[in-house]
Design brief:
By secondary structure, the chain is an alpha+beta fold. The protein contains 2 helices and 2 strands; from the N terminus they run αβαβ.
Length: about 60
């Protein structure tokens, strides 16, 4: 089961059966906002979930890979 399948930004990756779950990603960004983080660095890139969520949530981002 792919929890991202019905989410507009991530449905392109619906074939992925592993990776970050939406709840984990949401918790990460909520915490980042709470501590005043404005830059998200993704050293893995993978399927682009962190990058896409960074853009959607208005964070600056740096993808390293």
């Amino acid at each position: 089961m792919d929890p991202w399948k019905n989410m507009p930004v991530h449905r392109i990756f619906s074939f992925v059966e592993h990776g970050l779950l939406p709840g984990i990603v949401d918790e990460f960004f909520v915490l980042a906002e709470e501590i005043g983080c404005s830059l998200i660095v993704d050293p893995f890139i993978g399927g682009g979930v962190v990058t896409a969520e960074s853009i959607r949530r208005g964070f600056k981002r740096e993808d390293i890979g």
